[in-house]
């Protein structure tokens, strides 16, 4: 008995790596689905899986057969139910691609500073719209070019300018609803339709612009800026997290950190 116990306690380096990998995987999954209905679904599926293991352990043949049939379809059910979360997870993995730091991508570094968005212009436009209580939703691309969302709006392909940004979001213009997408130094499209976040933890005082800003940054690596039409508060989003009520100076510092540093 003692020898069996000692053998059971033998843990090698591969076992430690295995345990740590599973822990990291579950942590990443939790971060992606926290605050959404998907978390409750995941917990429900986990409970059913544990129940199945228990009934198999106690040799409850009929219940084991029923739960076994459900579990056998589990992969298909997971793909269907968690399709948005799986997409978000794959985007997260892709955005952390270590090859981005390799020599293969050095040619991108040479043009890095020529492709920095017009941070001063965007910040000044947000400050003026904040003062005039003009609602706005601006999305600035990084590695993901957002083609599927650009196609939902009106193409502009104009040089980024404060006057044009303010004109687009002026209340009486046909382009003020939806998002403005900026890529590098170009205002690509306006009135774009973005995915809305399904997080249940979003405060009720946040409107559609804020939920869309959170939604697009959950699914891509872009940065979203929101100016509230009711309060004039400026907020920015990244990786599904929103920082509210920032000053124009704080917004500028954040954008410089994201695109210049």
Task: Tag the structure with descriptive keywords.
single chain, 261 residues, alpha+beta, YojJ-like (1, 2 domains, 7-stranded mixed β-sheet, 12 helices, 7 strands, 52% helix, 15% strand, disordered N terminus
Overview of the structural elements:
By secondary structure, the chain is α+β, with helices and mostly antiparallel strands. The chain folds into 2 domains: 12-96, no CATH class; 109-259, DNA integrity scanning protein, DisA, N-terminal domain (YojJ-like (1, 3-Layer(aba) Sandwich). The chain is built from 12 helices and 7 strands. It has a 7-stranded mixed sheet with strand order 2-4-3-1-5-6-7, with helices on both faces. Mean pLDDT is 81; it is low at 1-6 and 99-112.
* Percent helix: 40-55%
Number of strands: 7
Low-confidence region ranges: 1-6, 99-112
Continuous helix count: 12
Rg, nearest Å: 24 Å
Mean pLDDT: 81
The strand order across the widest sheet is: 2-4-3-1-5-6-7
Could you name the CATH class of the largest domain?
Alpha Beta
Q: What portion of residues belong to β-strands?
A: 5-15%
Helices and strands: which structural class? alpha+beta
User: What is the assigned CATH homologous superfamily of the largest domain?
Assistant: DNA integrity scanning protein, DisA, N-terminal domain
Tally the structural domains: 2
What is the string of SSEs from the N terminus onward? HHHHHHHHEHEHEEHEEEH
Question: Could you give the distance between the termini?
Answer: 60 Å
Which word captures the global form? elongated
Q: What would you say the CATH architecture of the largest domain is?
A: 3-Layer(aba) Sandwich
Instruction: Please name the CATH topology of the largest domain.
Output: YojJ-like (1
